[in-house]
């Protein structure tokens, strides 16, 4: 069994990210599996090595150490381009010159064909060569999209149960040449031998697209567990504006890393026996969390955390 955590190094990990990391770690370790960390740093503008270092440090503070080297998507563009080539050879790729605005406007129009909200309506799919040349003359640069046919995918999520969704003409490569998330994640999960994906349930709607790409590329599909997110006292997804949400913020309010780990363990339905010794390390506690973890006992509702309230000790 190989699981993974795939953060984007675009900021400091907050309690919500750390909880998802812990969940993916427990789900892999419980069965003696491996746990990988992949940096999803496709976007050179928003990603940084400083954030990456900081994120790995924070994971280590909770005893979550990757098995094997950390992989960076920014160093794997050739792999993603090779996958696009394979899809192209099957005539499954076409250039798209639409601007964001054009897509927004077209996507807002009712499709009536069961496409997911915000799905690309396929404007450039049937463009003539003359139209394509006109876009080039206008100085537009093409993104690359997958040619789909209204396929629908159903998968059995380990947390959400049966999920069905439509597939659209997803972007494979942005118009600045950067490979797109949905493609990169599929290529990486396959090439890294990931067979269990535990991630936030905000990504469940992307999964049918990814399943489709897995099938087209002939890859084996991993098991998916989309876990509930952490929300602040107002019910919206936990964010910096809610207050003390990072390990450093919580340390400044007097919580040790082990206390944070115990708090997160409680939130995922694991009761960790009291400390054996005062010197117990996060790594030792994390082992106990994994041993007591069961996806079946994971609360199905978002975990509400109030960072400005009384913090547990
Ligand atoms: N990089 C994505 C994120 O930080 C996660 C992607 C995934 O787990 O598939 O939200």
Question: Layout of SSEs?
Answer:
Blueprint: E1 2-5, H1 15-29, E2 34-39, H2 49-61, E3 71-72, H3 77-89, E4 93-96, H4 100-108, H5 129-137, E5 143-146, E6 152-157, E7 161-166, E8 171-173, H6 181-191, E9 196-200, H7 207-216, E10 223-227, E11 230-231, H8 247-252, H9 257-267, H10 282-292, E12 303-304
Parallel strand pairs: 1-2, 1-9, 2-3, 9-10, 11-12
Antiparallel strand pairs: 4-5, 5-8, 6-7
Bound molecules: glutamic acid (GLU).
Structural commentary:
With 313 residues, the protein is an alpha/beta fold. It folds into two domains: 2-67 and 229-304, HUPs (Rossmann fold, 3-Layer(aba) Sandwich); 77-227, Rossmann fold (3-Layer(aba) Sandwich). Helices cover 35% and strands 16% of the residues. It is built from ten helices and twelve strands. The strands form four sheets. A five-stranded parallel sheet has the order 3-2-1-9-10. The model has no long low-confidence stretch (mean pLDDT 93). The structure holds glutamic acid. Glutamic acid (GLU) binds at residues 6-8, 40, 185, 199, 203.
